[in-house]
Amino acid sequence: MVTNMDVVQLSRLQFGLTAMYHFLFVPLTLGLSVLLAIMESIYVTTGRTIWRDMTRFWGTLFGINFALGVATGLTMEFEFGTNWAYYAHYVGDIFGAPLAIEGLMAFFLEATFIGLFFFGWKRLTRVQHLATTVLMALGTNLSALWILIANGWMQYPVGARFNIATMRMEVTDFYAVLFNPVAQAKFVHTVSAGYVTGSMFVLSVSAFYLLRGRYRGLAIRSMTIAASFGLASALSVVVLGDESGYMAGLNQKMKIAAIEAMWQTEPAPASFTVIGIPNIDTHETDDAIRVPWVLGLIATRSLHGQVEGIDNLVSQAELQIKSGMIAYGAMQTLRAHPDDATARAAFNAHVDDLGYALLLKRYTPNVTDAGEDQIANAALDTIPPVMPLFFTFRIMVALGFYFIALFGTMFVLASRRNLERHRWLLHVCLWSLPLPWIAAELGWVVAEVGRQPWTIDGVLPTFLSVSSVPAWNVWISIAGFVLFYSVLAVVEVYLMVRTIRQGPGMTPRPAGPAIAAVAAE
Amino acid sequence: MTEYEFLRLLWWAVLGVLLIGIAVMDGFDMGTAILLPVVGHTDMQRRVVINTVGPVWEGNQVWLILGGGAIFAAWPPLYAVAFSGFYLAMLLLLLSLILRPVGFKYRSKLEGTRWRTTWDTALFLGGLVPALVFGVAFGNTLQGVPFRFDDTLRMTYTGTLFELFNPFALLCGLVSVAMLTMHGATWLACKTEGVVRRRAQHAGIIAALVLAVLFILGGVWAARLDGYVLQSFAGVDAPSNPLTKHVVRQAGALMNNYAAEPWTKAAPAIGIAGALLTALLVSLRRLRGLAFVASGLSIAGVIATAGVSLFPFLLPSSLDPDSSLTVWDASSSATTLLVMTVATAIFLPIVLAYTAWVYRVLRGPVTAADIEADPHMTY
Predict the structure, then answer these.
(1) How much is the ipTM here?
(2) For a disulfide at A271, which of A196, A290, B71, B81, Cβ 3.0-4.6 Å?
(3) Radius of gyration of chain B (CA)
(4) Which residues 43-102 on chain A approach chain B with CB closer than 8 angstroms?
């Protein structure tokens, strides 16, 4: 069995495109849902109607965004079956459960109450409506938890074992899948990134109103909430990003080494390369600016822990491939003679490396007859693309620190009730709008490109995971998605901008000279 | 009965319940969308129709998402084969499903006539195409589809998109469209007033009668089709590997279960009786709510009929019958099924409870006055 590499590349392209498109809507949904709950809580506790109007206004924008989030999320679920059928067979026993539980526990909550959020204002008491909003936000955040448990398992596949009888991975310890440390770190990191996005959205749109001198009461209050919630979230995103780094250091050594473009193992504690240009040919990083000790501290949280370099990890992969070949050979024997005790012992001893043997399927379908250079090539395949990882990671981290600075500044101004003092800062807030999306998308690039060449780290190579569909089918679906998604993106942005320009549709309170100036026009 | 056998039977039943859940809950949204051009002639009438499902379609759609997730978790090979085998049909289904959420949300955000009629068409297609594709998928499942596994359990599928739309499958597609149209009509009969309601009631009667006729026709046809019979297999609690059995094709085999267990004839009987009852009740002033229930029962009967006819098969293979997927060789491990059972037992009652509460809050018909009173929040 050799899969068609065209289908592999096309399926990756399609999944990457649709996933990144989906994640344009998800972080805003995550962040805005919590901000809505905060705003409405203030309304219910203080009884001031402006907070209700704010909830309704930001809620309208939330609704426009939510519709596309739901629609594009459906695509993701379908694609595991349509484009990654062998993956669905091979790990469905583990990967399917969090997806199903996500539906039961989270999607129902979020989707049932979002309808009531919009239609329930007159039918519910204040407290009932607040409860609706809170449950909606809870559902949104829980769905992130379950999908990241699923994704965390792809990065760090715990609690599962290969079963020869069924030719797939099966759960041995569901508790381990559930409380996977990688999944927990990723959940908090991702959700915080969503909060940053929601906060930045509110901050930027409010800055737009203040610059225009419109809806000042709404804008200042919104900005204050966004600045404080955004600061807390931006701090959490960076700190929990560090947690993700630590977890990756424990479990995905190759990913860390590739992000750092660290070819050789350095004496502990390893230095962190702030910036430089990785040279794929010489295995050096040119013009590098390094900070001593930092990487070693992040990845191992000690002064003695080794952060292993790429070349070293490739040699280890070679050993694992050879071990996996023994498991693969034993598996073939066991399938013909299930009672062969020697083969059973060999299989049990080497089954953890079976995935590494599957890397050889690109070079020889029989696996066990691989030559030394084929093994060497397969080992080199375990290096993810170094260049994109090196740069995307650095841009993402830089943006993270920028968010802390911006939200921090606005938080200080808000606590001094002086948000409008510096007009240039309002411009900065406005033009910072796209940055959280860029950071979030780059974050996924780091996580998923860094996982290559695997769909399930060390277990199932990406090129084996695809469906046996003709390449032209995938071309058609890519064309369909590009066309459809482009039209929807245009419509979405148009409606968003229009709703923002129209504003909350309430009478602006005459306050401040800017309002008077607009009124005079 | 061993634990694994029980769990497999249980999840076969849960699969049925979820499919019925999709058809009953998401189905009335789709039926409503199909009826949109029929019952809504003016913009306001159409807004009324759309706003009857406005607050609930998102929750209803989760039945579909959950159905997909549950098949993935409980029947991974079925998920792999059905989704990749029906690749282009799935794409068609997906794109039409994407039209719905955006159609609901965006239609009434702008005033223009062209803008709104465009989204009305999108909503109509978003109801019609999924209803048709679901039925066609069932029609093909009953006949068997051309796939086989190699020894690593990698599946190849040799059919084409056009072969999916064969005459029997198209008939099943029409059954599905009639069924969901009927169901949408009973929903509108409860949730609207005046001329829109009268049109919906008429449409409901027609759809219910068409459903009854087409369903009986489908049954007569299915009795003449080739079915599949399990000759030997590894056991009801053996590890899930579809290549461990022998299956033969046999004319009329889709009727075997009804002959062996006559009580299962209740499924088609409920399907037909429910439809006839719906036609009777939908126009009665006080019994409109019962018509919705009767219509739901009819849906349950129709879907159960397909399940009983196939059992123990989930998806037979016409290319290599031995590769067929059955309840005994296409499930997850016992551990995963157990985890899913516990999760369902905890969360499904909670879901049903708050869903019921939301429907109670939103009870009563939607009128033009409601929409004019709150133009920013309604669709």
Answers:
(1) 0.91
(2) A290
(3) 21
(4) 56, 60, 63-64, 66-68, 70-75, 77-78, 80-83, 85-86, 88-89, 92-97, 99-102
